[in-house]
C-alpha cells in the first residue's frame, strides 16, 4: 500500500537553517520512523530559502533587453532581468506569459523565480531556483545520513494542453527518477518500444496532494510503499532533449 505522509510542524525556513536536521526531526515522528525505501519530497522553495537564494529587487538594474521584454510581457523589468540571468533561452514571451529554459534545463514559467510564500521579510524580494537541483538533492540526502531515504526536490509546473499545475521532480537523489521499460514486454508479450516511466514526477505529484499550493504550510512529505530497482537516476534525465522538443 502506498502512503503519503505530510511532515507537519516544520518552522518557517530561513537562510542558513540546517534543513536536514529539521527534516530528520520531523521524520522521526512518522509511524515507525523513517524507512530506507521512503521517498522524502521537499519543495524547491524551502531548499532555496535554506540556501539563501533570495534577491532584493532594489539591487537589480534591468538592461535594455530586460526592459523591452518586460514591456512585451507586462512584467516587472527587474524580475525579467533575473529571469534572463537564470535562463539559457526564451521559449515563449507574450503579454502575461514568459516561459524560458532555466540553466538546469527545465522549461518553466519565469525561470522558476518565485514571489509567493516567502515568509517574513520577503516583501520586495524574489526567490531563485537552485541552479543544479540534482546536486541540491544529493547534498540534502548526504546530510540526512547513511540510512537516508531517497530525496526529491519538487516544483509546480504547468503542462502543454492541460490546465492547472502539478508537482514534478526537478531534483532527485537515491532512486531512479526515470524508469526505462523499453525492451521489456506487455502482458500480451508485445515488446515495449517507447515506454519510460517518470517515477520521480509520479512521486512528486503524489506528495503534492498533501503539500498543497497555497497556505497549507506543508513543504515536505514522505511517499511510502513504492518499490523500485536499478541504479539511481537524476531528475535531469526527465528533461526531454532539445533535439526531441516537439514544441520549438
Commentary on this structure:
It contains 6 helices and 12 strands. It has helices at 19-28, 44-50, 64-73, 77-85, 133-144, 199-211; strands at 3-6, 39-43, 54-56, 87-94, 97-102, 107-109, 125-127, 150-159, 162-173, 179-180, 196-197, 220-224. It has a 5-stranded mixed β-sheet. A 3-stranded antiparallel β-sheet has the order 4-5-6. The chain has a two-stranded antiparallel ribbon with strand order 3-7. A hairpin with a 2-residue loop joins β8 and β9 (162-173). α1 packs across α5 (133-144) and α3 crosses α4 (77-85). The longest helix has 13 residues, at 199-211. The chain is globular and about 55 Å long. The mean pLDDT is 89.
Structural class, by secondary structure, is alpha+beta
| Mean pLDDT figure | 89
Helix-residue proportion: 10-25%
What is the number of strand segments? 12
The major sheet is characterized as: 5 strands, mixed
Q: Detail the poorly predicted runs.
A: none
- Reading the helices and strands in chain order gives EHEHEHHEEEEHEEEEHE
Strand ordering within the main sheet: 1-12-2-8-9
| Whole-angstrom Rg | 19 Å
Count the DSSP helices.
6
State the end-to-end distance: 40 Å
Strand content: 25-35%
Give the CA-based shape.
globular
Amino acid at each position: 500500500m502506498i502512503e503519503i505522509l505530510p511532515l507537519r510542524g516544520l518552522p518557517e525556513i530561513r537562510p542558513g537553517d540546517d534543513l536536514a536536521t529539521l527534516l530528520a526531526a520531523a521524520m522521526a515522528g512518522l509511524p515507525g520512523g523513517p524507512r530506507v525505501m521512503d521517498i522524502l519530497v521537499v519543495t524547491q522553495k524551502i531548499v532555496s530559502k535554506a540556501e539563501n537564494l533570495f534577491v532584493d529587487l532594489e539591487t537589480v538594474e534591468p538592461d535594455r533587453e530586460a526592459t523591452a521584454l518586460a514591456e512585451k510581457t507586462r512584467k516587472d523589468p527587474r524580475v525579467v532581468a533575473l529571469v534572463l540571468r537564470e535562463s539559457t533561452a526564451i521559449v515563449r514571451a507574450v503579454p502575461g506569459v514568459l516561459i524560458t529554459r532555466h540553466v538546469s534545463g527545465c522549461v518553466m514559467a519565469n525561470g522558476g523565480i518565485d514571489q509567493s510564500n516567502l515568509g517574513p521579510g520577503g516583501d520586495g524580494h524574489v526567490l531563485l531556483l537552485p541552479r543544479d537541483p540534482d546536486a541540491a538533492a544529493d547534498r540534502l540526502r548526504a546530510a540526512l545520513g547513511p540510512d537516508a531515504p531517497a530525496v526529491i526536490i519538487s516544483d509546480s509546473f504547468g503542462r502543454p494542453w492541460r490546465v492547472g499545475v502539478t508537482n514534478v521532480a526537478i531534483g532527485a537523489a537515491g532512486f531512479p527518477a526515470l524508469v526505462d521499460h523499453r525492451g521489456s514486454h506487455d502482458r500480451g508479450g508485445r515488446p515495449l518500444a517507447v515506454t519510460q516511466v517518470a517515477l520521480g514526477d509520479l512521486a512528486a505529484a503524489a506528495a503534492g496532494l498533501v503539500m498543497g499550493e497555497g497556505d497549507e504550510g506543508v513543504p515536505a512529505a514522505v511517499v511510502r510503499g513504492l518499490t523500485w530497482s536499478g541504479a539511481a537516476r537524476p531528475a535531469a534525465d526527465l528533461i526531454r532533449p532539445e533535439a526531441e522538443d516537439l514544441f520549438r
